[in-house]
Amino acid sequence: MGLPLLSSALWNPSHSCCSSSVELIWPHLSSKSCCLGLKFKCQQFYKGRSTMLGVLVCSSRRPTSKETVWRRKILPQNEDLPPILPKNKKKPYPIPFKEIQQAAREDKKLAQMGIEKPLEPPKNGLLVPDLVPVAYEVFEAWKLLIKGLAQLLHHIPVHGCSECSEVHVAQTGHNFRDCSGPSGRERRSSHAWVKGSVNDILVPIESYHLFDPFGRRIKHDTRFEYDRIPAIVELCIQAGVDIPEYPSRRRTNPIRMLGKRVIDRGGNLEEPKPWRLADPSSLNDFDTYRAFERFSRPSLSDLPKIAQETMAAYEIVKKGVRKLMRKYTVKACGYCTEVHVGPWGHNAKLCGEFKHQWRDGKHGWQDATVDEVFPPNYVWHVRDPNGPPLASALRRYYGKAPAVVEVCMQAGAQIPYEYKPMMRLDVIIPDPEEARMIA
C-alpha cells in the first residue's frame, strides 16, 4: 500500500498552517473497506482571532473478509524454563479466581431457584464419543513410551541423586552444588549420584482408580480399598478405555445436579474386583515399576529407531493428555504433588506440605495442569555425553530439556523444533577462563 497522494493545488507550503481543505487520496479504495478517522480542525490565529479553515480526513484500508492474513509463529531463539514455585506458598490457580467465584454464584443462584444445573458430557457422567479414540491412542503410546525408555536405558546412562530429585543424563554426574537433600550440608551441597531408572525419567504420578467417579468419595479410612495406578491410565479409563482388571462404570443416563448436590446418579453399584484373580504380570505393561528388568537389551543398530519411536510416543501422550483434560476434570493439590482424576478430590488426609496442620492434612484441591499430570522433568542438556562433566562456572551457558527428550536425543533421535530454544544450541560454551572475562 503506497503513500497517500496529496493534491498540490490544495496545499501551500508558504503558509504556516492549512489555508484550505486538505484531501488525502488512497489508491484502489472501496467504500466498504475505508474507515474515516482522525478528524481534526485546523485553525489559523491572525490578529488574536481564530479562523476555521477546514477538516482533515484520513482514511485507512482494511482487508476484506475474503483476504487471509498468514502469520508464522516464530519461536524465540533462547527460552528460559518456567520459574520454580516456592514451597511455602499455594500454587496459583490455572483459572482466574474471579471466574471460579462467578461460576459458583451462578450455580448457587440456579439452586436457589430450583433449576437443575445444565451439564454436558463428560460432566454428566457420559462419555465423549470423539475422545474415545484419543484415549486409546494415548494409552497405547504410554505403553510404548515405557517400553522404549526401558530399552534405551540399557545403553544411555542416567544418574539420579539419592538425596534429592536431581537427574542427569551423561556418563558422569555434573558438579553443580545445588543438592537440597537432608544431608546436603554435610556434602557441601554436592549430589550423591546413583544409577537411575525409568522412574527418574518419567516421574510417577499416581491416582486412585474409581469404578464410579461420581459415586461416594474416598475417605481417609477407606483409602486402602482403592488401587493406585498412573494418573494418565486412570484418565484414559474414564475417557473410554476398557481394561478388564480395572473396570469403570459406563452410564447410559446422565446424572442430575442441583447446585453442588447430585440428586440422581442412577443408584450405587457395587464395584467388581476381578483384578484380584488376574495375573499381576498383565498389569505391568502400563506401569513403570521395574520396567528396566522386563525388557531386554537391544542392539546398537536398533537404537536410533527405538529412540525415534519413543520420541513420537512422548509427543502423542503429551498432546493427547492436553486434549482429554480440556473435557475431563482432573484435580491437583495446591500444595503437594497429589493428583485425582474425577469431578471431586478425595478426602484422604495425606498432605504434608506447607501448613498442613491448619488443614488437618487435607489436600487443597484445584484444577490441574498438564505439567502436573505429565511432568516434563527438565534436566541439563549435555552436548558431549562422553566429555568432561558440566562445570559450575559455566552454568548459565547450558540449556535444559525434558528428560525423555534428552535420553532420545543421545540415542540418535531428531530433536523437535519446539525444544531447541530451551536447549540453547546456538550458544557457544566458552572455556572457564574465558567466562571470567565476560561481563
Automatic annotation (TrEMBL):
PROSITE patterns: APO
Domain APO intervals: 160-245, 332-417
Molecular function in Gene Ontology: RNA binding
InterPro entries in alphabetical order: APO_dom
Pfam families (UniProt xref): APO_RNA-bind
Domain of life: Eukaryota
Entry-linked PANTHER family: EUKARYOTIC TRANSLATION INITIATION FACTOR SUI1 (PTHR10388)
Protein name as it appears in the record: APO domain-containing protein
Source organism per UniProt: Vigna angularis var. angularis
Gene name for this UniProt entry: Vigan.11G200800
